[in-house]
Design goal:
single chain; mainly alpha; 3-stranded antiparallel β-sheet
Length: 138
């Protein structure tokens, strides 16, 4: 199932309208209608607000899957000599990946925020990512 399909299934399941969604995320209702007509996904910068509107995680909205929270990040509790890798480890599918100091610091900042602040941070990150994509295509 695509992001588009999940979005419009959620609208139907929650008995909400395209206008409700558009008003909540601050866009014109015609934009939402055009996603449905074209089968296109919303811009990345709107994903945090859309997930907030439906009270679903952004990960589920993007992938249709939820990651078990207890197996994702170990915030620096690993002991011993990690060589150039200090701090945080991500565990995925039984394998460990060490984060750079910059990534580990982002995880620490993110974990210290409340839900609204996390959404704002992710929205800013999506805006930066969208900006760098458009710069690359020019």
């Amino acid at each position: 199932m695509t992001i588009n399909a999940r979005l419009f299934t959620l609208l139907a399941d929650t008995h909400r309208t395209q206008k409700d969604l558009a008003d909540f995320i601050g866009i014109n209702e015609r934009n939402v209608a055009s996603w449905k007509q074209r089968g296109s996904d919303p811009p990345a910068k709107l994903i945090p607000k859309i997930s907030e509107f439906f009270s679903v995680s952004m990960e589920w909205l993007l992938t249709g899957e939820e990651r078990p929270r207890d197996s994702f990040v170990n915030n620096g509790s690993v002991a011993g000599n990690l060589g150039p890798h200090t701090g945080t480890i991500i565990v995925r599918n039984g394998g460990e990946t060490f984060l750079s100091e910059e990534c580990a610091e982002l995880v620490r900042v993110y974990e210290s925020l409340d839900v609204r602040q996390r959404i704002q941070l992710l929205k800013s990150a999506f805006e930066i990512a969208d900006g760098s994509k458009s710069e690359q295509s020019e």
